[in-house]
Amino acid sequence: MLNAQCMKELVDVYFPQVKVIRVVLDNLNIHTPAALYEAFKPEEARRILRKLEFHYTPKHGSWLDMVEVEFSVLSIRSMLEPTHSRCGDIAT
């Protein structure tokens, strides 16, 4: 619902004068026009969607994917630190 509310604010508050708002999104399953229909009445969802043009990043080439990989690496490294609470010592 939060994403749908953000899209409504883009259309009504921040850019009410523009004809089309191009929105770049990752491929998360909640980033779809259907989310607007779940959050608002059909007439309101259609009104908002008329001004939005969605562009999705590639599924496996997204900057978000790269950030998630980096966080995963950092998380693993921190668990391998001798001072980490899960590891008693390096051998463990």
Descriptive account of the structure:
This protein is mainly α and 92 residues long. It has 2 domains: 2-56, no CATH class; 59-92. The protein is built from 4 helices and 2 strands. It has helices at residues 2-14, 34-39, 42-49, 63-80, and strands spanning 21-25, 52-56. A two-stranded parallel ribbon has the order 1-2.
What are its keywords?
single chain, mainly alpha, two-stranded parallel ribbon, 2 strands
User: What level of helicity do the residues show?
Assistant: 40-55%
Please state roughly what percent of the residues sit in beta strands, choosing from under 5%, 5-15%, 15-25%, 25-35%, 35-45% or over 45%.
5-15%
Please report the total strand number as a whole number.
Answer: 2
Q: Estimate the global geometry from the Cα principal axes.
A: elongated
What order do the SSEs take from the amino end to the carboxyl end, as H and E? HEHHEH
Rg (C-alpha, Å): 20 Å
Largest sheet: 2 strands, parallel
Q: Tally the helices: what do you get?
A: 4
Helix/sheet category: mainly alpha
Amino- and carboxy-terminal Cα gap: 44 Å
Q: Any idea how many domains?
A: 2
Mean pLDDT: 79
pLDDT below 50 for ≥5 consecutive residues: which ranges? none
Strand order of the largest sheet: 1-2
